[in-house]
Amino acid sequence: MTRDLERYGVASLGECTIASPLGLSGGSGARSRYVPDRTRVLDQVELAPGASVDEARALEKAGPRERIYFDPERARAGIVTSGGLCPGVNNVIRSMVFELVHGYGIAEVLGFRFGFAGLDPASGGEEPIVLGLDEVRVAHRFGGTMLGTSRGAHEPAVMVDTLVARGVDVLFAIGGGGTMAGAHAIAREIARRGARIGVIGVPKTIDNDIAYVDKTFGFETAIAMARIAVDAAHTEALSVRGGVGLVKLMGRDAGFIAAHAAMASHDVNVCLVPEVPFRLDGPTGLLRYLERRLGERGHAVIVVGEGCGVELLGASGAGAPRDASGNLSFQASELDIGLHLQREIARHFEARGQPITIKYIDPSYMLRGVPAGAVDAEFSADLARHAVHAAMAGKTDMMIGRLHRVFTHVPLALVLSEAKRIDPEGELWLAVTEATGQPSFA
Fold it and tell me: S-S: 301 plus which of 245, 294, 306, 317, CB 3.0-4.6 Å?
């Protein structure tokens, strides 16, 4: 239990002695709109028969605190966006600035340009921009990030030097797993120096693969975009004899986009994800199943997550193409599972003398470059406001999350301790196989 308490505990810069300027109803009663610091959200809400509740495995509940750590009139905040694009980044930036300025009256907000490179003078980073209400007023109407982004590691000591030189009291890092790792490294360097700078992460990953949260912003918008591609593939497949629609969707290590797009469409016959091994050949392979499917129904729609190329193509070694962050580059021809499946399916049916028409659709970056949909726009703003509340209360080395539909504070060390993946024996994959009717291709 002691170890769990340590893992779930959130670091703090010190005692909160300043009354919050939010002017909410206070006190300890049920009508208080401030969240007491000791309020917790259980990690697990489902118990097996005979199991007991482990109160040590609980996350701090997010929300405004009655007393805060930083004096808003003297505090300066910094915002950085890193990694791949995702619908809703500008919504987060805008809502952060509005809450910091409108809600707390903070002195200044700086936006660091092009990811963590903006904190590293050696990277040729541009000067940060001052983010006021006018600068962010219409940012939410556009996709991408108004601050720019980049990939690649930078020395934590150098980045902390920049924060100190700029007089930044709180750094908000918006990004995925790599960004959270960078934020954690910055927070550790700050703690080593004994400095008083807060570091707050906001989870941004279109793959929805960050642990200890039920979803990340941009994911629902990505599913809506993916469904358009899947519906187009279905139309193509239905319009010809022996039609096969093949759609490759983003998902480096986790197949959540592919799985949810398949269920949202209702017209997918095969869904392939990185977490569930499959084979092409043999009596239980995908190709034999396609033979039966085309013989019985005359068409088929396949959705595949891009990360499926690692195992099937055997291209994950030292010589595999990678991006600046060290991630496998699935747009490279060696790892493009969509092109590989297109070739293998066409070759298989040609060898059988069975004519088919296969249409391959790769929407890829269309999923992440669009503005946030309505649900993600609301969710992004909620994350941003809770991040500001946590920062002003002196929390650090943590990420804002949402679990069981409740916003939480998640220590970055805990976030980085594991990754969220589809469980091949879990409810989500069962739902996918029931929606598609597909068998196991193991």
Answer: 245
Rounded to whole angstroms, the Cα distance separating 354 from 348 reads 9
**207 among known catalytic residues:** yes
- What gap in Å lies between CA 112 and CA 249, rounded to an integer? 31
Identify the residue with better confidence: 320 or 34: 34
Closest CA to 276 of 300, 251, 246: 251
List, as one string, the DSSP characters of 187-251. Answer: HHHHHHHT---EEEEEE--TT--BTT-S--TTHHHHHHHHHHHHHHHHHHHHTSTTEEEEEEE--
Among the listed ranges 13-27, 153-167, 426-440, which one has the minimum average pLDDT value? 13-27
Q: How many residues does the chain have?
A: 442
Question: pLDDT digits over 54-76, tens only?
Answer: 888 999 999 999 999 999 999 99
Catalytic residue among 43, 120, 169, 207: 207
Return the CATH number of 219-367+424-436, one of 2.60.40.2470, 3.40.50.720, 3.40.50.460, 3.30.70.2190.
3.40.50.460
Name the pTM for this structure.
0.92
